């Protein structure tokens, strides 16, 4: 059996190189090609990342019969079309979230992937932190008892200033929701995965703290070494949320609340959750990913440090290093891709990774939350 896949990566912004690195670290794949918006950028990126082939048009990459798996790492509005064309070309697909811009597109991709019989995955990598997986195992084993309540947040500060600007601020490229769809989707996916319960109803409150942002008139690199002046910016009206708080009802009667905020000073990339059960509670912070807090009423609280010898056998499958050797963000993608590639190389391998159906689920959740923010009402997720 062939033990290595030929992989192509479309898009080389922040997350594309992370995919390239993680794919190589699985020891199950070779990244043989990349594609970007034009030939010059693609050539330079191929040289930078040591990739043999490059394409200025992603369709040329999809025509390459040697490529078996495609990673789609482009802005959100391109995910549907590129995923569809990749599947139609007979390629297995890993797609960045969101899977698509709306329910209809996401449903079409799920149906097409099933019809083609191709391996498909959405990059919900954060559930691959070892102690996030251990949390899921603890809930499944019944250690928490009944989960009464879930609360948490996803906080960042990369859009703190009104002069902070990125394509994700533009609905035509990013979608109608920003903070919820961008980072809230990771939290929602993780919580449903860990709690083993679906969110059935939501009530959302949105806020845009910077209704006008200043977009640089040239690429930021152009201004290197000089202070930008007022005439170097264009005022842009912002239509998507900087902040959201969402009340949640779960299928088992549990309650929850999520806060996302992309203008939270000092919070670089902090996903936090706490599950309060009838037997004990657990809490985890992605900025301290190798520690899991365990709370009790009648005994001392505990902190579980990541150590494979102390973890569930299923958790150990996504741990590469012994206790005291910390694992972090780059390792989550490696572990996800490892499971996806194994599913291609060995069709009998377990398929526990988040597939396109998980991507559809997040589209449905985000649409319900967006509707609630507009109507100021509870909205069912269906």
TrEMBL record:
Pfam families: GFO_IDH_MocA, GFO_IDH_MocA_C3. It comes from the Bacteria. One of its GO terms (molecular function) is 1,5-anhydro-D-fructose reductase (1,5-anhydro-D-mannitol-forming) activity. Residues 5-119 form the Gfo/Idh/MocA-like oxidoreductase N-terminal domain. It comes from Atribacter laminatus. This is 1,5-anhydro-D-fructose reductase. SUPFAM superfamilies: Glyceraldehyde-3-phosphate dehydrogenase-like, C-terminal domain, NAD(P)-binding Rossmann-fold domains. The keyword Oxidoreductase applies. Gene3D superfamilies: Dihydrodipicolinate Reductase, domain 2, NAD(P)-binding Rossmann-like Domain. The keyword Oxidoreductase applies. Keywords: Oxidoreductase. Its EC number is 1.1.1.292. Residues 134-281 form the GFO/IDH/MocA-like oxidoreductase domain.
């Amino acid at each position: 059996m062939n033990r290595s896949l030929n992989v192509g990566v479309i898009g080389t912004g922040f997350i594309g190189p992370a995919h390239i690195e993680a794919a190589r670290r699985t020891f199950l794949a070779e990244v043989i090609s990349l594609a970007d918006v034009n030939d010059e950028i693609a050539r330079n990126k191929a040289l930078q990342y040591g990739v043999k082939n490059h394409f200025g048009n992603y369709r040329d990459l999809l025509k390459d019969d040697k490529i078996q798996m495609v990673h789609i790492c482009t802005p959100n509005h391109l995910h549907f079309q590129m995923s569809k064309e990749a599947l139609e070309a007979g390629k297995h697909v890993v797609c960045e979230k969101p899977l698509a811009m709306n329910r209809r597109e996401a449903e079409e991709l799920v149906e097409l992937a099933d019809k083609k019989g191709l391996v498909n995955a959405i990059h919900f990598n954060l559930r691959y932190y070892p102690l996030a997986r251990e949390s899921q195992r603890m809930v499944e084993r019944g250690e928490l008892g009944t989960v009464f309540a879930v609360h948490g947040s996803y906080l960042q500060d990369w859009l703190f200033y009104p002069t902070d600007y990125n394509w994700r601020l533009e609905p035509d490229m990013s979608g109608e929701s920003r903070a919820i769809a961008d980072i809230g989707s990771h939290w929602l996916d993780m919580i449903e995965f860990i709690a083993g319960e679906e969110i059935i109803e939501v009530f959302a409150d949105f806020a845009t703290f910077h209704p006008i942002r200043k977009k640089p008139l040239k690429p930021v690199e152009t201004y290197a070494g000089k202070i930008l002046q007022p005439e170097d910016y264009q005022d842009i009206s912002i239509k998507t949320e900087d902040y959201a708080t969402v009340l949640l009802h779960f299928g088992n009667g549990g309650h929850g609340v999520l806060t996302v905020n992309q203008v939270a000073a000092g919070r670089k990339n902090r996903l936090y959750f706490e599950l309060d059960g009838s037997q004990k509670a657990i809490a985890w912070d992605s900025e301290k990913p190798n520690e899991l807090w365990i709370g009790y009423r009648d005994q001392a609280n505990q902190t579980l440090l990541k150590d494979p010898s102390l973890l569930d056998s299923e958790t150990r499958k996504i741990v590469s290093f012994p206790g005291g050797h910390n694992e972090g963000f780059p390792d989550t993608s490696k572990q996800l891709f490892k499971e996806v590639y194994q599913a291609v190389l060995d069709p009998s391998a377990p398929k526990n990774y988040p597939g396109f159906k998980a991507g559809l689920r997040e589209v449905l959740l985000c649409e319900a939350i967006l509707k609630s923010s507009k109507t100021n009402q509870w909205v069912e997720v269906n």
